[in-house]
Amino acid sequence: MSAAFGPAATALAAAPPAATSSVVVNTDNRSLGLRNVVNARDAGGYQTTDGRTVRTGLVFRTGDLSKAGDADLAELTSLNVRAVHDLRTSYEQQLLGVDKVPAGATEYHDDVIGQAPPQVMASTLSAGTDLYRAFITAPGASEAFANVLRDIAYNPGGVLFHCTAGKDRTGWTAAVLLTILGVDRDTVTYDYLLSNYYRNATDGDMMNGVTKAALDSAFDQANQSYGSFDNYVRDGLKLSADDITALKTKLLA
Length: 253
Fold this sequence. Notes:
Elements: H1 27-30, E1 41-42, E2 59-62, H2 70-78, E3 81-86, H3 90-96, E4 106-109, H4 118-122, H5 129-137, H6 141-154, E5 158-162, H7 169-181, H8 185-198, H9 212-226, H10 229-236, H11 241-251
Parallel strand pairs: 2-5, 3-4, 3-5
Antiparallel strand pairs: 1-2
InterPro entries: Prot-tyrosine_phosphatase-like, Tyr/Ser_Pase_IphP-type, Tyr_Pase_AS, Tyr_Pase_dom
Protein name: Tyrosine-protein phosphatase
Organism: Nocardia acididurans
């Protein structure tokens, strides 16, 4: 089926992936309902393998905020967003525009792939496995992701993180967070694949959507580079036991 453009495109709206038994919050309630910010949603609302639930209203993931309108910013303010982490490169910020930040929030620039090899930078739009493996191996990537996770752990308010489309760098950040908190892999993958639903991307459209193989490649690279996911968190992201405890204390009910 060929892609549709314009008003007719809504007829091809992507269906959400099948929810696992650990999904607590449905797609409508997960959406932040922002008008000019894509893929904007709450990162919580999942049950962990030990029966706890990731709290909602504390962590948010979106596409870039460069076109956020006044109503969007007011909604983020009402959600008590106190920190915005921009995972884009400086070039993307110049090309697409810097963030519009809700009142009272502090903005941080955590460039994930700005120091990656040129071939990785060139693959950003296609968002294939090379890009996802670079989330583990590129200079500066682990530091960028860790900055977000530490802020989530210790910030008393809400934390929002985003890249351009809110699906790749943002998707890996959310996957790491949920995995640390004890959400099972199938549910982590469900959350990741929701980008196809919220971005209305058809299967295989890597410019607008995501694929499970890409996420799997990042987890695989974490295992290859560090021996296990837990080792990646400890030795790659350099999150301490206290950092992990703080994340769980804040986000698990």
